[in-house]
């Protein structure tokens, strides 16, 4: 017995380990083969679901193109009134000629019983009408009220109010706009009428239907050719149905396919767009993604079992690290939230009990409440932005923004915070440096960099912010510097500084923070097409450098001016034939 035990101890445990490893590998292979079978079934379901999603994608893309085309049409027609009235007071005949030319060019010259034009002179109160605006009794009573309501509600240079008015046997779409003097004062209200039935029947036919705009680009290519007469437009058959179930538009081709999607646009009225994929396209996609060779993965599972086990071990390790990072993040955020909430609650309750000694102390306490509320708001905004960035749901809304003014506003809000920490803020941010950015996102960038400088710098330091113009090979840009007099950032840590939940300074560092601020900064700056980096400040400490293009290649306010210029020649040509 003793000799057997010694032999087992000498050699048996090795055999036991090997046997256990092989048995475990076999179990993993069997389980993997079963998982592959289930995955294949799920993959088949996913392919069928994806085909339906492609069709829904095409229906929605086409509906959005039709909507955008309608918005462009209204903008082009109303650009006729963009010429200041003190340069040329527009008459109803001139407006009707220029607006009619745009409508005929976009909708065709089909007879429209609802077409009409009207003008309300706001100086004399005189109302004029042509076409349906004068022929339909309901219009003669309704349109002056719409024009006066437009004049009261809108104060922009030229504005549009869009409404549907029911007429006998038809629904009339009314669009109005103002002509103003150069000082901004309204002179007259113009408007045009179109039948909604004509719009929904003819407008979709003017929309380009390239397959690259209606289907995911990854699924559209030169290989999708079905016959010599097939063009990319024929990959999708389209149909639009009115809210009462009447078909108002369809493409020349009609398909019978089980890959069919619908999209309902709900506005003043509901219109359903139906897209059907080409049956040969459906067969090609199924053959591509449901090839039988994909099932042969089961043969290599025994070989991959150990690799999968190793990958699983690494994954579990990474998962534990992420869980620890999340716990640290929750603890940090809880601490960051608790402090301003405690301050707000304490001082608000003190004010409610009227324990202030004088007005000066009362204003000081109100200032503390306001400062902590702003701090709390910035923290919540940071967390929301981080969650949207992590879920890839951030959508920028760029607009023309004065970068210097934006930086000055942020610095002014942070002066009390700096004074509380016995620090000084210095800003060199000249105004009139305009860039096409999302002001909310860029403000959060400046807030995070400034908050980071105040947290990690010593008491008595000076934090400086500078804004200057710069030039990149791609075009003009703006550069923002945020410098502190803290310990700086070691070169070895600068790469991971931008990762979420990374906080430098060691476990004993008590600067606070959630560990996501710089990650949010980098993501927002890169979405603007810019760059952000950290370097050594000239006087010691860290200096963060943000470079953002001024807006080259992005939609700018000049788009409206270009659109007006495109319409103006048509208007000028018509004026030579219309008496004033």
From TrEMBL:
The Histidine kinase domain, residue ranges: 332-552
An example molecular function term from Gene Ontology annotations: phosphorelay sensor kinase activity
Matches recorded under Gene3D superfamilies: 1.10.287.130, Histidine kinase-like ATPase, C-terminal domain
Pfam families on file: HATPase_c, HisKA
InterPro entries associated with the record: HATPase_C_sf (IPR036890), HATPase_dom (IPR003594), His_kinase_dom (IPR005467), HisK_dim/P_dom (IPR003661), HisK_dim/P_sf (IPR036097), Sensor_HK_Regulatory (IPR050736), Sig_transdc_His_kin-like_C (IPR004358)
Keywords recorded for this protein, A-Z: Kinase, Membrane, Phosphoprotein, Transferase, Two-component regulatory system
Catalytic reaction(s) noted: ATP + protein L-histidine = ADP + protein N-phospho-L-histidine
Class in the EC hierarchy, top level: transferase
EC number of this enzyme: 2.7.13.3
CDD domains: HisKA
SMART domains: HATPase_c (SM00387), HisKA (SM00388)
PROSITE patterns hit by this protein: HIS_KIN (PS50109)
Keyword Transit peptide: no
Name of this protein: histidine kinase
Protein species of origin: Roseisolibacter agri
């Amino acid at each position: 017995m003793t000799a057997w035990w010694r032999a087992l101890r000498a050699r048996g445990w090795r055999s036991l380990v090997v046997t256990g490893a092989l048995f475990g590998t076999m179990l993993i292979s069997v389980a993997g083969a079963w998982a592959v079978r289930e995955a294949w079934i799920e993959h088949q379901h996913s392919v069928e679901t994806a085909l339906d999603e492609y069709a829904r994608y095409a229906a929605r893309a086409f509906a959005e193109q039709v909507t955008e085309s309608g918005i462009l049409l209204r903008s082009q027609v109303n650009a006729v009134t963009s010429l200041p009235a003190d340069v040329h007071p527009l008459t109803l005949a001139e407006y009707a000629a220029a607006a009619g030319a745009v409508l005929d060019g976009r909708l065709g010259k089909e007879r429209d019983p609802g077409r009409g034009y009207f003008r309300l002179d706001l100086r004399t109160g005189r109302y004029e009408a042509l076409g349906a605006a004068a022929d339909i009794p309901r219009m003669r009573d309704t349109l002056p009220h719409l024009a006066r309501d437009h004049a009261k509600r809108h104060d922009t240079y030229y504005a549009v109010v869009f409404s549907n008015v029911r007429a006998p046997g038809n629904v009339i779409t009314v669009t109005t706009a103002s002509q103003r003097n150069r000082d901004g004062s309204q002179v007259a209200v113009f408007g045009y009428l179109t039948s909604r039935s004509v719009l929904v029947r003819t407008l979709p036919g003017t929309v380009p239907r390239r397959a690259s705009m209606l289907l995911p680009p990854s699924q559209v290519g030169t290989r999708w050719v079905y016959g010599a007469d097939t063009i990319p437009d024929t990959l999708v058959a389209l149909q639009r149905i009115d809210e009462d179930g009447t078909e108002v538009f369809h493409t020349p081709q009609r398909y019978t396919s089980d890959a069919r999607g619908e999209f309902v646009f709900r506005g003043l009225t509901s219109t359903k767009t139906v897209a059907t994929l080409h049956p040969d396209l459906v067969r090609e996609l199924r053959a591509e993604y449901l090839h039988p060779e994909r099932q042969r993965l089961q043969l290599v599972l025994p070989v991959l079992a150990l690799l999968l086990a190793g990958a699983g071990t690494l994954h579990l390790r990474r998962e534990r690290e992420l869980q620890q990072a999340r716990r640290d993040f929750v603890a940090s955020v809880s601490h960051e939230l608790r402090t301003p909430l405690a301050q707000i609650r304490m001082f608000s309750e003190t004010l409610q009990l009227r324990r202030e000694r004088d007005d000066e102390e009362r204003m000081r306490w109100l200032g503390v409440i306001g400062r902590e509320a702003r701090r709390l708001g910035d923290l919540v905004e940071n967390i929301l932005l981080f969650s949207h960035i992590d879920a890839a749901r951030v959508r920028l809304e760029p607009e023309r923004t004065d970068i210097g003014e934006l930086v000055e506003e942020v610095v002014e809000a942070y002066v009390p915070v700096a004074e509380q920490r016995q620090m000084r803020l210095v800003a060199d941010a000249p105004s009139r440096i305009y860039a096409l950015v999302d002001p909310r996102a860029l403000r959060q960038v400046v807030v995070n960099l400034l908050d980071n400088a105040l947290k990690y710098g010593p008491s008595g330091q000076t934090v400086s912010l500078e804004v200057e113009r710069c030039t990149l090979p791609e075009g003009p840009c703006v550069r923002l510097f945020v410098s502190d007099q803290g310990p700086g950032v070691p070169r070895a840590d600068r790469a991971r500084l931008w990762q979420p939940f990374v906080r430098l300074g060691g476990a004993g560092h008590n600067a606070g923070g959630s560990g996501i601020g710089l990650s949010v900064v980098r993501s927002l700056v890169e979405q603007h097409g810019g760059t952000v980096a950290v370097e050594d400040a000239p006087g010691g400490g860290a200096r963060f450098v943000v470079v953002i293009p001024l807006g080259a290649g992005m939609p700018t306010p000049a788009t409206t001016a270009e659109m007006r210029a495109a319409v103006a020649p048509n208007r000028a040509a018509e004026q030579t034939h219309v008496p004033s």
